[in-house]
Amino acid sequence: MTSTTIDFETIKKNQRAGWETGDYPRVGNTLQIIAELLVEAADVRAGQKVLDVACGQGNAAMAAARRFAEATGVDYAANLLEQGRERAAAEHLDVTFQEGDAEALPAPDRAFDLVVSTVGVMFAPDHQRAADELVRVTRPGGRIALACWTPTGMIGGLFKTVGKWAPPPAGVRPPTLWGTPEHLAGLFGDRVEWTALTGRAYTFRYHSPAHFSEWFRQHYGPITRLAGTLSEADRERFAIDLAEVAVRFNRAGDGTVAAPADYLESVGVVRG
């Protein structure tokens, strides 16, 4: 199936409705350390122009602003942008938040020194178009830095579980492919020289597997939206399935959850 036969606009409309359901920052804020590590790996400098693509509530944009970069965050979910503005104001950080599509970024060519995304751009349904946009808005010699969940890690397992209840649209490639060097090579070709491809893990910490399941059903927008479509009996089975993901990856032995989730941290230089 080619990209011309997939209705990406409808897919994005449904995605956006998912992210605007629930309260994703209750999950996303816990991932701040991923953004801090990514910005450090990209060696951001004070005064650089930095774009955080599919920024959500602004983790990477805020990490860049803490280092005195000129930071902008772009996302298509207005509620997440508003929470980003609130967070930046509370921390006295100068960040610009702008509504926009990762597949059609509202920015001129070669406008940024550094373009980053933490578990964000990977969800754009048209992978190639999103990758092309990342390159377009980065100046030659500038950097692209990404943190993306892997297919075989905990979040890859979570997405597979969710997919059993709500199969993804036909022809759309899994977002976790962005967490593999092979997929990045296919998307970016010789336009980006990947100088660092580092496997990392973020540890999800919850009171129990049931608490993990409850938190994601209450706050992780796409899962919240899916749960709302299920019957009472199916919601109970779905809750158990989500908890079993935490059990499968858990390394804690005290009843709590401390479950590492693998992701790929990628930093590359855009060739002129």
TrEMBL record:
Q: Which residues form the Methyltransferase domain?
A: 50-142
Q: Which GO terms describe its molecular function?
A: methyltransferase activity
Q: Sorted alphabetically, which CDD domains does this protein's record hold?
A: AdoMet_MTases
Q: What is this protein called?
A: Methyltransferase domain-containing protein
Please report the organism this UniProt entry assigns to the protein: Phytohabitans suffuscus
- Please spell out the taxonomic lineage of the organism that makes this protein: Bacteria, Bacillati, Actinomycetota, Actinomycetes, Micromonosporales
